[in-house]
Write a structure and sequence with these properties.
It is a single chain. Strands 1-2 form a two-stranded antiparallel ribbon. Helix 3 runs antiparallel to helix 4 (72-92). Helix content is 71%, strand content 1%. With 310 residues, the chain is mainly α. It has one domain: Farnesyl Diphosphate Synthase (Orthogonal Bundle). The relative contact order is 0.12. A hairpin with a 2-residue loop joins strand 1 (102-103) and strand 2 (106-107).
Length: 310
C-alpha cells in the first residue's frame, strides 16, 4: 500500500469516527431550538441532506494535526460553519438566484417548503450559527475572534460579496484574476475560515495562522476549479445536482476561460501549492500533516495532466 493511499484510508477512518459526532451535534441543536416545527423541519431538511461536510472536517483535522482534542466546543464551531454553508446553498438554489431543482440528490429546499420558507430556513441557519458558537466554553478572546472571523468570511466582505461578483459577472467576460477574486470570496472565504478556525482552536499564533490562511486560500481555489471541471465532465447522478449548467448559462468558469485542458493544468498547479505549504507547516511547527495532505485526494479528475490519487 502506497503512502497516499494509506493516508486516504486513515482520513476515511477519521471521518467515520468524527462525522457522526458532528451530525449528532447539529441534529440535537436543531431539535432543541424553541421554534415553530415548520421552520425546524425546513432547516433540518437541508442540514440532513448529506454533503461532504468538508468545512467542519477541515476544522477538526487542523485541531487534530496540532494535537487539540476534538471536544464539544470544536464540534459546535464545526456545526456553525456547516449551518452557514447550508444556508448559502438554500439561498443559492432559489429561483431568484440559480433556480436549481436538485441539491445533494434531493429536491431543493424551496421545492419542498416553498420559496418563502426556504428563505427563512436559510435566515435561521445563518443567525443560529453565531448562537451555537456563543454557547461554547471557549475563552472570551478565542470565542470573539472565531465569531468575528466567521462573520467576516460569510458576510458582505466575504462569501456574500463573492456571490454578488458572480451575479455581476453573468453579463460580462471576466479575466482570470477577476474570476479568482470572485471565487476567493464566494467559495474560498469559508474554506480559509475552516483552516484558520482550526488553528485558533488549537491555540496557534500569527505566523502559523498566516500559513494556514494561505493553505486555505489555495485549497479553496482548487475546490472551485474542481467544481467547475466536474460541471463539464460529470453527470447529475454523480454530483447530486444538475451539471453542464454553467456553460448553458454562459457563466464565468475556469474551463470556460482556460479551456478544459487549461483548467486541469491550473488545478494541478494549485494543488502543488497546497502540498508545498503543508510541507512547510510540518517543518516549522508541531503539525502532523498526513491527514490534511490526504484531503487533496478529493480532487480526483483522471486527466493526463492530473493523475488520480486514489
Amino acid at each position: 500500500m502506497n503512502g497516499l493511499k494509506a493516508m486516504t484510508n486513515d482520513l476515511k477512518a477519521f471521518q467515520d469516527q468524527y462525522r457522526p459526532l458532528l451530525e449528532q451535534t447539529m441534529d440535537q441543536y436543531l431539535k432543541d431550538l424553541n421554534t415553530r416545527p415548520l421552520l425546524r423541519d425546513a432547516m433540518a431538511y437541508s442540514v440532513d441532506a448529506g454533503g461532504k461536510r468538508i468545512r467542519p472536517l477541515i476544522i477538526m483535522l487542523v485541531c487534530d494535526a496540532f494535537g487539540r482534542e476534538i471536544d464539544a466546543d470544536v464540534l459546535a464551531c464545526g456545526s456553525a460553519l456547516e449551518f452557514i454553508h447550508t444556508y448559502s446553498l438554500i439561498h443559492d438554489d432559489l429561483p431568484e438566484m440559480d433556480n436549481d431543482d436538485l441539491r445533494r440528490g434531493k429536491p431543493t429546499n424551496h421545492k419542498v417548503f416553498g420559496p418563502a420558507m426556504a428563505v427563512l430556513a436559510g435566515d435561521g441557519l445563518l443567525t443560529t450559527a453565531f448562537e451555537i458558537m456563543s454557547q461554547t466554553k471557549l475563552t472570551a478572546a478565542v470565542k470573539t475572534q472565531l465569531i468575528a472571523d466567521l462573520a467576516l468570511a460569510s458576510g458582505p466582505q466575504g462569501m456574500v460579496n463573492g456571490q454578488v461578483g458572480d451575479i455581476e459577472g453573468e453579463t460580462k467576460k471576466l479575466t482570470l484574476d477577476q474570476l479568482k477574486d470572485v471565487h476567493a470570496q464566494k467559495t474560498g472565504a469559508l474554506l480559509v475560515y475552516a483552516f484558520m478556525a482550526g488553528g485558533l482552536l488549537a491555540g496557534k499564533q500569527s505566523a502559523e495562522l498566516a500559513l494556514l490562511k494561505r493553505i486555505g486560500a489555495n485549497f479553496g481555489l482548487a475546490f472551485q476549479i474542481y467544481d467547475d471541471i466536474m460541471d463539464v465532465v460529470s453527470d447529475t447522478a454523480t454530483m447530486g445536482k444538475k451539471t453542464q449548467k454553467d456553460q448553458a448559462e454562459h457563466k464565468n468558469t475556469y474551463p470556460g476561460l482556460l479551456g478544459l485542458e487549461g483548467a486541469y493544468q491550473e488545478l494541478a498547479k494549485v494543488k502543488k501549492l497546497v502540498s508545498s505549504d503543508l510541507e512547510t507547516l510540518a517543518k516549522t511547527t508541531d503539525c502532523k500533516i498526513d491527514l490534511l495532505a490526504a484531503l487533496l485526494n478529493y480532487f480526483k479528475v483522471g486527466n493526463k495532466n492530473e493523475k488520480r490519487t486514489n
